[in-house]
Amino acid sequence: MISENKRRWLTQVYALAIKEYLQIFRDITLMVFMVYAFTGDVYFAGSGVTLQLRNAATIVYDADRSQASRDLVRQFRPPYFSVEDAISMPSFPVSGDPSRGGDSELARGDAMISLAIPHGFERRLLRDESQSLQMRVDTTHSIPGYLASMYSARIVNDFAMRSSPLLSQLPPSVTDFFPPLRDEYRTLFNPNQDEGWFMSVSQLLNVITVFAILLPGAALVRERERGTIEQLTVSPLSPFQILLPKVFAMTSIVLLGTFLSWFFVLRPVFHVPSRGGFPLFVAVTVLYVVTSTSLGLLAATIARNMAQIGMLTIFLVAPMIFLSGAWTPPEAMPAWLRVGTLAFPLHHYINASYAILFKGAGLSIIWPSCLAIAGLGSVNVLFTLRRFRGI
Amino acid sequence: MATPQMVTDAKGIVKVYGSTEAVRGVDLQVSKGELYGLIGPDGAGKSSIMKIIAGVLAQDAGDVRVFGTSIDSEASAEAVKSRLGFMPQGLGLNLYADLSVEENIDFFAKLRLVPSAALKQRKAELLSMTRLKHFKDRPMKHLSGGMKQKLGLICSIIHEPELLILDEPTTGVDPVSRRDFWSILHSLIQDRGITALVSTAYLDEADRFTRVALLHRGKVLLQGTPEEMRRSARGSIVSVRAEPSDEAFERLRAWTPQIERRGDSLRVFVGERFGQEAISEVTEKLSSFRIESAEATDPDLEDTFIALLRRDEAKPAAPSLISRERSVASAALAIEARDLSRVFDSFRAVDSVSFQVRSGEIFGLLGANGAGKTTVIKMLTGIIPPSSGSARVGGIDVAAAGGSVKTRLGYMSQAFSLYQDLTVLENLRLYAGIYGISGARAKRRVDEILDMADLHVFLNQLSGRLPMGVRQRLALGCALIHEPQVLFLDEPTSGVDPLGRRSFWEVIYRLAREKGVGILVTTHYMSEAEHCDHIALMYAGRAVEDASPAELKARLEKEVGRILEFSCADPYRAVELLGTNGFSGPALLGSRVRIFSKSPDADLVGIARVLALAGISHGEVRERPFTMEDVFVHRITGLEQEGAA
Asked: What was the ipTM of the complex prediction?
C-alpha cells in the first residue's frame, strides 16, 4: 500500500505531466518543426554535407599538348576533381607564359584549382631535367582547399616517380625497395568511410541537444509570461514537483523524435549500424536529455521572455556544438578551450554515441562518459532547483 | 454649413478579426468642440472604432468621414492625419522610455514638422499646464502612470490637431491623477477649440463628457448626453437594509434579477417607480423582515447599463448557489499582515503594512498602480518573501510552513493565469491534480465548480478562446477547487463587463458569508470598493486607512462636510469665483461643479448669490452622497501634499 502522502505526490506530478503533453501536442507549429528537424534535417545533413573533396573545379592550361601532359591531366580524376580544358578560355594567352592564366576564374569562384603545364614539359621530362608546374588553389574554404593541394601534390609526385626515365629503367628487384615504406590502409569502424554515417548521426545529436534545451526552457518561460507559474508557486508543490513533470515530458518527447529519426532516416537511408546495441544508445540518450533539459530550465530562470530564451538557446548550443568535438577533436583545440569541451555534456554524449553505434562499445568502455554526463546533469539540476526557488 | 460642423461622421462601421466581429455596425457623429466619450468594457470595440477613425485600421464595411473627407483608402487617411492627434491604449506605450520628457516632446514635434518657435512656446505652455515643467529632464520610464499619460497627451497635441483621439487614457491611472487628467483635457478643449474622442472602461467617468456612446459587444447600446443616459433607464435604485440579510436577498432576487449586495445593504433596481413609491414596492416584498433603513436614489450609469443589458439579453441571474450549508462566522483570523515590508533594490515597494482579515470577511486593498497592492498579495501567498515583518494565513506563518499554508489558500492573479491551450475541463482537472485531489473527490469538486461558475456550456472549449467574463469565472473556479479557507484576488474584475462583475461579486459574497472564507481583494474600480467589509488605502507602499466604506465616508464628512454639486454655463469661472469667495474645495467634475460644505443650507444660498452676481446661470444645487472615489482622492491628495511639503 502506498501512503497517502505518496499518492498525493504522484497525483500532482501526474496532473502536471498530462498538462505538458497536452500543451506540446496542441502546438501544431512546434510539432511540424520537430518532425522536420528529426527527419528532414538529419537527412539533409547526412546526404548533403561532406567534408571530402568532391568535384573540385579544375582548369588546366596545357601549353605542351603532349602525351606526357595529357597523362598527367588524366590523373586528376572524378569524383575528386572535375577537369576542364582551358584552351577555349579567353583569359588564357594562346601562347607564351601561362602563369597568370586562370586568375579571373579563381577570383570569380568558377574554378577552385588552376593547373598550368609549361611548353616543353614532355621534352624536359624525357631528358630527366628538373622543371616546374604551376598549380594555384583557392583555399578560401580551407578544408577542401587543403585537401586539393594535398591530393594534387600526391598525384604529381606519383606521376614524377612513374615517368622518370631513370627510375623506369631500373630492374623490378630494385624498385621493390622503392619507396622503402609502403602505405596500405585498413579502415576501422567505418570501412567505406561513409560520411553519411558520421554526418547524419552527428546532426541527430545536435537536434536532440537543441530540443532538449529549447522545449523545457520555452515551456517554463511561457508559464512565466502567462503568470501561471505564480499559480503553481502558491499551490502546495515543491520546486522539484514543478520541474520533474517538465523534464519527464520533454525527455520522452525528444526520445520519440530520436526513434523517428532512427527508424525512418538513419536505418533505412544511411544504414547506420548499432554495433553496441540500440538499447544502450537509447539509455545514454535518456541520461543526456535529462541533463540538457535541466540546462534548458536553468536558462529559463534567467530569460524573461520567449525571444530571450530563443537567443539564450542559440548562445548555449552554438559553442556546445563547436566545442563538442564533432567538428574538431578536442586535442586539436587550444588547451583552455579543451576545458570547455569537457564541461559540456554534448562532448561526452558524442563520444559515447559514436562508440556505441560505430565501434560496438559496451558499458564497460563508455562508463566514464556516462559518469561525466550524470555528474554535469546533477550539477545542473541542483543549480536549477536553487535558482527556481528564487523566482 | 448650417448645422454644427461634423468632425467625424461614421455610418455602419464593421470590423471583423478572423471569426470575431469586434464592431457590428456602429454609427457615430461627433460635432466640433465636443468631448465625446466611448464607454464600454474591454472587448466592446472601442479601440477598433478609434483606430478606424484615426485612419490606422481599415474598416471592413461602413462609411467613415473625418473633416468631411471619406476615409476609404491609405491616401485619404494620410490626408487627414495632420489634423489628428492619436494616443493609443496603454500607459506611455507611444512614448520612448529612455528619452526624457522634453526629448519625447521634441521628437513628436519634429515628426509633425512643428516650427521651432511654435514648438518652444507650446512646449512651455503645455509643460506648465500639466505641471511637468520640473520633470522635463526625467526619462519617461521613471514617471508615474499619471505623469506618463499627461506626457502622452502633450505629445499627441503638440502639432495642435483639430481632433484628438485618446484610447483609454485613464485606465490603470489612480483616481487622483485621473481627475487631474480630466481637468487638463477640459481646459484644452475649452481654450483651443479642440474636438476630442475619448474612450474609457470606467462607467463612472461618463459625466465628464458632452456626449457619450455606450458600447457593448461591438454595438452602440445607448447614445446621448450623460443626463439623457441616466433618464433612459426609467426607475430608481432602492437601497434597503433588512434583517436577516441573506434571506431578504433571496426573496428579492426571486422578484427581480437586478439586485446586488453592498456591504450590509441591498441595492435593488425598481423600474418605472420613483421616490417613496419605489421604496414601498420593495418594502412590501419584505413584509416579514425587519427593515432598518430604505432610501431611493437615481440609478447611476452602471445601473442603467445593466438595466439595458438585461432588457436586451434577458441573461439569467447570478450563478446559483455554492451550497446552502452555513458556517458560523467565526472570529478566527484568516489573514494577518504585521509590519510587512518589501524592498526591491533601494525602492521600498511595501512599507510596514499591517492589517487583519477575519474569516467570512471581504477586505479590500485600494490603490493606484505601483502603490504596492500586488506585492502585498505576493508576500501573503508566499510567492516572494518579505524583507521584514510577518505574514500569517489561516493562523500559520507563511514563511515558516510553506506546504501546509498553501493548501489553505486560493489565489487568482491579475492575468487570470489559466493554461490557454487547455480546455475548461482540463484546466479544472489540472488544478484538482495540483492540489492532490484525485478520484471521486476530484470528480465531485469539478462538477461543483462547473455548477457554481456556470461553465457547463464551455466544457470543451480552449480557455484562451473564452470571453473575459467566462475566463474570470474559470480562474476563480480553479482557485477554489481545493476549498480554500482564504482567498486572494488580485484585480479580479479588470476587463470584465459590469454584468460579469456583478455576478462575480455575488459569488464572492456567498463564499464569505456562507463558507466563512476570508477574502482579500484588490481593485482599481472605486465603485467596487463598496462591496468590501473593510478597506485599506495604499499609497506609496503604505496602507493609510483601514475601515469600512461607510466609516471612511463618515470620517470624510466629519472633516470636510457635505458635497454640493451643480451644473452651470461657465464652470471654469464658477470654480474660480467660488474659490475666491471662500467656499471649500471647489472642483470641476466634468461639466459639473462641486464644493464641500459644512453648512449646506447657508451655502446653497451663498452659491446662488455669487453666481448670480457674476451673471452665470446654473442648474439646481444638489447634495450628493460621498463615493469611495471622493474618499480616495481626498486622502491621497492630502498625503501627496504632505509628501511634497
From this structure: 0.75
